[in-house]
Amino acid sequence: DSAPVYKTTDVLNVRAEPRTDSTRLGKLASGTTVEYVRAENEEWAVIMYEGQEAYVASQYLTAQ
Fold it and tell me: pTM for this structure?
């Protein structure tokens, strides 16, 4: 399995929906490895967060 590992490049808010005004589920520290699921659109990515799918701003993710 050669899927890239994604890490955060900054403190990142984890959202319930792909909008900046949606419920914040939590925060990820800079340098956190995330379980990347898919790209939602150009701005948002889906990750697994505490056992559920959640959204983060993809500009703050980097593939290792």
Answer: 0.91
